[in-house]
Write a structure and sequence with these properties.
Strand content: 25-35%
Number of strands: 16
Strand order of the largest sheet: 6-5-4-3-2-13-14-15
Shape: globular
Largest sheet: 8 strands, mixed
Helix content: 25-40%
Order of helices and strands: EEHHEHEEEHEEHEEHEEHEHEEHE
Structural class: alpha/beta
Radius of gyration: 18 Å
Amino acid sequence: MDMIRLIASDLDATLLDGQSRLPPDFAETVRALAERGIRFAAASGRPIYTLEEMFAPLRDDIIFVGDNGGAICWKGENLYVSEMDAADWHTLAGQARSAGHAAVLCGLETAYVEEQFRPYDGVFKRFYTKVEYVPHLEDVTARVDKFTIYFPEGDSQKGYDALYGPVWGGRFSVAVAGADWVDIMNPGVHKGAALLRLGERLGVSPEGMMAFGDTFNDAEMLKAAKYGFLVENGSPALREEVPFLAPPNTEYGVMQILHRVLAQNGRVCEADFRRAK
């Protein structure tokens, strides 16, 4: 038997349902976990400031892992920030502009987008509650921890395969973050590294960790935790890499597993769960 002490979950298409809503009993469940000494982390490609607004009533109960591991915050304290070098993201901005791609420069306090992509404002503000439009991204002087590209046609994998993976994968941490996004962070920055940093901080080994996700920017996190769950609606290609399978997000699959953890007071074993392979 293992004792779960740290649980991390992706949001979109994982914890959130098909309408991007939190499960009805989410707050009560997180507080019940905390009472048993089990910490919950929201691990997302969204920035910290967006996560703090989304989970405002639970700000002191949830650890926030933002920008795919680029920043970690707990109870208002920044535990970790991976700031990108300006020369690096300047190069990325020029490349994205030449390719005609809509780039989002993820500042620690605001997201920046070039004016030409304002027509996608409704999409950007679903994920970035603070967006500033500028003539050129290179004009920005803010601290940045992630560079992301939006693909309105839903062909992010094609963009990754053709450009961002082969050209930048050796220099940065590059991941497909669903059908519409490719995320670029400093090398070694991803949700899995963030989970292990949290484990060190809290004194929790991978055997005491549980994680949930749906796509490639979750892969490292799902493999870092002994109990890593791909939701059933997730990327089929990941089933060979991830230990366990959870019900789909439309059935609040993450919550089904969390309720089981609570019922067993955090004590679990591999036989309790459905294998992904």
